[in-house]
Amino acid sequence: MPNFAGTWKMKSSENFDELLKALGVNAMLRKVAGAAASKPHVEIKQNGEHFYIKTSTTVRTTEVNFLIGEEFNEETVDGRKCKSLATWETENKIYCKQTLLSGNGPKTFWSRELRGDELILTFGADDVVCTRIYVRA
Q: Which helix (H) or strand (E) holds 31?
């Protein structure tokens, strides 16, 4: 089983602003979010298929606890409440489908994949995908 546990720092980010646009975030908030999310600190704890992920930026901190294959509550990148279900897409990749609890919006998901010494995080909103690459801190 892959070991996602550890502290991670972001090495690169592609399409974050485009993702926020696809989610309907206005220009001013996108600017603030882009600056705040430019150096996120990610801590992952893993016990088998149970995960705890804490992401901290200068503006907000999010925490999520989940077990692979069991629905859980979380928020989309833009803060809307959703039900999520994480499953193994491959041996080293977790894919999580998000379903909004109320209102309308794009179909959203995230995935986390271990590739060598890197953690590849993707966020999607309909056909817009943001990719962020992390290395162990």
A: helix 27-36
Q: How many CA atoms are closer than 13 Å to the CA of 20, on its beta-carbon side?
A: 17
Report whether pLDDT(28) > 80.
Answer: yes
Angle of CA points 46, 50, 53, to nearest 5°: 60
More confident residue, 103 or 92: 92
End-to-end CA distance of the chain: 21
Q: Could you tell me the CA-to-CA distances from 134 to 12, 41, 68, 95 in Å, in that order?
A: 7, 10, 21, 17
DSSP character string of 117-133: TEEEEEEEETTEEEEEE
pLDDT digits (tens, 9 = 90+) for 56-90: 988 788 999 999 999 999 988 888 899 999 999 99
